[in-house]
């Protein structure tokens, strides 16, 4: 006789797997793909002992890289370099997969009222939680095997590859257990996600400080446990036990919390909000500001951090790539003097692309509002169509401008500090400002699609973003025809600070953005509201 | 705008057609709402009520037909007209992270301002906690948010799309009371519903639509002429010959008891005929809108379903 509290777990796991098979497959494919890509890239890049030695010398002393990646161990082999460069990203992927899977099947279901329906059947109190964690564990196991297989398939040692996979999978498991606790503590799935991401952030910070100082503080972080296995060098399996033990303790805690709360409630009671709206919330502009606030701050924080990291690496670029011929495929038109400039031009392009993605997501928020039926009550008031769509477009334009300027400023400051060349601050900022019309085009493309092709807007806008990313990354190295390039705003703007700014392209891009925005607003005024 | 009776018209729709691809959602719909009346807009689900309302609000554009709202064109003059009306959608969706109180203020301010004293009074009457985030509200509570925002405004015209779906009977009573208050103040209400008791309790006139077309329109008294009254009678002697009278339907009974439905114009003759047998007890039930509905749609449905039943 099985424990009644667990009755129905098997059925729920099968059902959850049925709901999530595509999502999980995508997560697993991402993990395997990142591993294979890093493995092939590193093997091509550090193809000589000299290249590897230069890499080791540069990375081993660079605090920013260590903070981002992990402890600099095993860098005397290419396989070790692969583990160093990719392990944190893989842990992030596994943690996000574990978090979303666990919370989706526990708190989110409970919030939507589905758990009530399920629990009213012959399903035990602990079954939904165990099923959610169980599915996440299946996902972690799959991602572990996939990473190991990707390593082996690309020619890395089998033992280390599967240890890397197991380390990542175990870290994912720990975050599944953290999510299980968060799902009990908070009454809303959104807040539970916030708790898990905060825990992940703390774990990352603890590990970063510990790895820079080398004082063992990293043993306090689950991410540190995963990286303490040292795949491809020491090949230690025992740190995995720390992750398993941590998972066990957290799950016991989640279970205890679950036994002490009512269905639908959290341990933390929700704070009551404002009984009346502030003065700001009284116009479409105020509403848009309120709706976009959180996402804008999140993107700004992420992009400023990205700028800081890219800038800080500028100092080691010269030593890192100076005598590596393979670098030419990644950083075109190298000259020794222009090396840092070229590096900053390429990385600034990444910052611009990411900001462009923010601009698209912000402009598409209008479409989300419309299809969810939340535009209807607003447009039934004395709010005009252009004001409503314009408020979202304005946030996309102004928000992406602010984000890009902030990220560019921090990148310039960070690059200046890392290279000891104070002039870089101004030069990077100037190059950033030259890219502003690019991100305006991103916002405008998404807005015109919302205005004219509402039902296809999201897919088309993101398809175009993906196209621009591919063109930016590969067009030059793959020798594609020039018209392929012309559909990307980034191709028109000089990739400063190495290249001189020209007014012509910026004016044309700004005019294109303006024309698209006007078309979008006019189109939205003429069409039916498309709910659903 | 003046109608023949000299009363101004708040809403005037003639021959409205709206298609979505191959679907003809509205197929020549007519609707006339006089200023100051509570007008019931009745029809089964999917008959085109919400589509009509969205055209009236300028959210959808009419393909053909003439649509006037408060003397203006709802598509071209949307913003100016919306200052004078308040709307409650049939399915209220709110912003998950914004509290009910904030949403009420926002919608009220966007519409042109709301009366703070009325807001407090309505929150109390509808028993709504304005400090909760919208994601924690039930359907009924989201409905209340939209109702409070609309009712606290100073609109001339209230467009209410199935406003009581999700409200419990107590809150429904509060809602009815509020609508009666609006009428007493001379405001116009267009109330769409498929709950017929609601329309019976509140409406001066109703329009009944089906498949995007108006099938009947008029006051309840006018519509009752088209319907049958149910009669149950006990008589001293067994009733004979009733089935020979024109306008008598569904006759049943025996043992001195008889039950039948009778058309309005045949009522007098039927009662005279009954009295010849010595009436001991007589109950007559006025037709409800349910019966009116059933008669309108029930017979057509039966005809439509017949060939399918034969085929299967």
From TrEMBL, chain A:
The keyword Nucleotide-binding does not apply. This is ABC-2 type transport system permease protein. Signal peptide: none annotated. The keyword Transmembrane applies. It comes from Geodermatophilus sabuli. The chain crosses the membrane at residues 24-46, 78-98, 129-156, 162-183, 190-210, 237-258, 296-322, 342-364, 394-419, 439-457, 464-483, 503-524. It comes from the Bacteria. Keywords: Membrane, Transmembrane, Transmembrane helix.
UniProtKB/TrEMBL annotation, chain B:
Keywords: Antibiotic resistance, ATP-binding, Nucleotide-binding, Transport. SUPFAM superfamilies: P-loop containing nucleoside triphosphate hydrolases. It is found in: Cell membrane. InterPro entries: AAA+_ATPase (IPR003593), ABC_transporter-like_ATP-bd (IPR003439), ABC_transporter-like_CS (IPR017871), ABC_transporter_ATP-binding (IPR050763), P-loop_NTPase (IPR027417). SMART domains: AAA. It comes from the Bacteria. Transmembrane segments: none annotated. It is a peripheral membrane protein. CDD domains: ABC_DR_subfamily_A (cd03230). One of its GO terms (biological process) is response to antibiotic. The keyword Membrane does not apply. GO terms for cellular component: plasma membrane. GO terms for molecular function: ATP binding; ATP hydrolysis activity. Residues 11-236 form the ABC transporter domain. Belongs to the ABC transporter superfamily. This is ABC-2 type transport system ATP-binding protein. It comes from Geodermatophilus sabuli.
């Amino acid at each position: 006789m099985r424990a009644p509290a667990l009755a129905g777990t098997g059925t729920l796991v099968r059902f959850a797997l049925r709901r999530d098979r595509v999502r999980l497959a995508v997560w697993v494919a991402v993990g395997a793909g990142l591993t294979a890509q890093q493995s092939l890239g590193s093997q091509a890049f550090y193809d000589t002992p000299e290249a590897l030695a230069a890499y080791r010398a540069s990375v081993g002393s660079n605090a920013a890289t260590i903070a981002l990646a992990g402890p600099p161990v095993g860098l005397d082999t290419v396989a070790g370099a692969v583990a160093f460069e990719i392990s944190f990203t893989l842990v992030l992927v596994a943690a996000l997969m574990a978090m979303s899977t666990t919370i989706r099947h526990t708190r989110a279901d409970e919030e939507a009222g589905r758990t009530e329906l399920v629990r009213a059947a012959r399903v035990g109190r602990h079954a939904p939680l165990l099923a959610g964690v169980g599915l996440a564990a299946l996902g972690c196991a799959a991602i572990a095997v996939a990473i190991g297989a990707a390593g082996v398939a690309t020619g890395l040692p089998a033992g280390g590859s599967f240890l890397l996979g197991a380390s990542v999978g175990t870290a994912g498991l720990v975050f599944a257990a953290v999510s299980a606790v968060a799902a009990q503590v908070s009454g809303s799935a959104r807040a539970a996600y916030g708790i898990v991401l905060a825990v992940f952030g703390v774990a990352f910070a603890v590990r970063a400080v510990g790895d820079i100082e080398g004082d063992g503080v990293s043993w306090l972080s689950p991410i540190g446990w995963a990286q303490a296995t040292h795949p491809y060098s020491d090949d230690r399996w025992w740190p995995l036990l720390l992750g398993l033990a941590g998972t066990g303790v957290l799950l016991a805690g989640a279970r205890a919390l679950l036994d002490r709360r009512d269905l639908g409630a959290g341990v933390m009671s929700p704070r009551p909000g404002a009984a009346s709206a502030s003065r700001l919330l009284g116009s479409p502009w105020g509403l848009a500001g309120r709706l976009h606030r959180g996402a804008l701050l999140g993107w700004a924080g992420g992009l400023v951090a990205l700028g800081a990291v890219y800038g800080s690496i500028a100092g080691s670029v010269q030593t890192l790539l100076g005598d590596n011929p393979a670098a030419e495929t990644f950083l075109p038109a190298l000259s020794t003097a222009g090396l840092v400039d070229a590096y900053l031009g390429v990385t600034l392009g990444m910052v611009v692309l990411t900001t462009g993605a923010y601009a698209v997501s912000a402009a598409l928020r209008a479409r989300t509002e419309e299809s969810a039926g939340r535009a209807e009550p607003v447009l039934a008031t004395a709010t005009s169509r252009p004001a409503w769509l314009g408020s979202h477009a304005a946030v996309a334009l102004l928000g992406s401008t602010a984000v890009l300027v902030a990220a560019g400023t921090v990148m310039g400051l960070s690059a200046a500090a890392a290279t000891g060349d104070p002039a870089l601050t101004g030069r990077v900022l100037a190059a950033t400002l030259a890219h502003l019309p690019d991100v305006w085009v991103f916002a405008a493309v998404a807005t015109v699609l919302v205005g004219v092709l509402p039902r296809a807007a999201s897919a088309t806008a993101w398809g175009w973003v993906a196209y621009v990313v591919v063109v930016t990354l590969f067009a030059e190295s793959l020798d594609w025809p020039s018209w392929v390039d012309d559909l990307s705003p980034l191709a028109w703007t000089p990739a400063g600070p190495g290249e001189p700014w020209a007014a012509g392209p910026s004016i044309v891009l700004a005019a294109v953005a303006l024309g698209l925005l006007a078309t979008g607003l006019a189109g939205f005024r003429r069409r039916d509201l498309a709910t659903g | 705008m003046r109608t023949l009776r000299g009363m101004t018209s708040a809403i005037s729709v003639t021959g409205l057609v709206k298609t979505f691809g191959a679907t003809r959602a509205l197929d020549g719909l007519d609707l006339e709402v006089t200023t100051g009346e509570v007008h019931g807009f009745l029809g089964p689900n999917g008959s085109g009520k919400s589509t009509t309302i969205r055209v009236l609000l300028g959210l959808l554009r009419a393909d053909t037909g003439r649509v006037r709202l408060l003397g203006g064109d709802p598509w071209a003059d949307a913003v100016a007209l919306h200052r004078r009306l308040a709307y409650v959608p049939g399915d209220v969706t709110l912003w998950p992270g914004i509290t009910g109180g904030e949403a009420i203020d926002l919608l009220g301010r966007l519409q042109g301002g709301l009366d703070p004293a009325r807001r407090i009074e309505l929150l109390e009457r509808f028993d709504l906690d304005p400090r909760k985030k919208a994601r924690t509200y039930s359907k009924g509570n989201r409905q209340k948010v939209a109702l409070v925002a609309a009712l606290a405004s100073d609109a001339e015209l209230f467009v209410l799309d199935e406003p009581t779906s999700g409200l419990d009977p107590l809150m429904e009573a509060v809602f009815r009371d509020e609508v009666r208050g609006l009428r007493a103040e001379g405001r116009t209400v267009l109330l769409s519903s498929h709950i017929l008791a609601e329309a019976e309790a509140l409406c001066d006139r109703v329009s009944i639509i089906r498949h995007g077309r108006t099938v009947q329109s008029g006051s309840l008294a006018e519509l009752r002429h088209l319907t049958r009254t149910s009669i149950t009678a006990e008589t001293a002697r067994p009733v004979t010959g009733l089935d020979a009278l024109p306008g008598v339907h569904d006759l049943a009974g025996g043992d001195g008891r008889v039950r039948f439905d009778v058309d309005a114009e045949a009522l007098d003759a039927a009662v005279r005929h009954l009295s010849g047998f010595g009436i001991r007890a007589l109950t007559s039930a006025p037709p409800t809108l349910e019966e009116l509905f059933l008669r309108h749609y029930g017979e057509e449905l039966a005809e439509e379903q017949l060939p399918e039943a034969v085929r299967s």
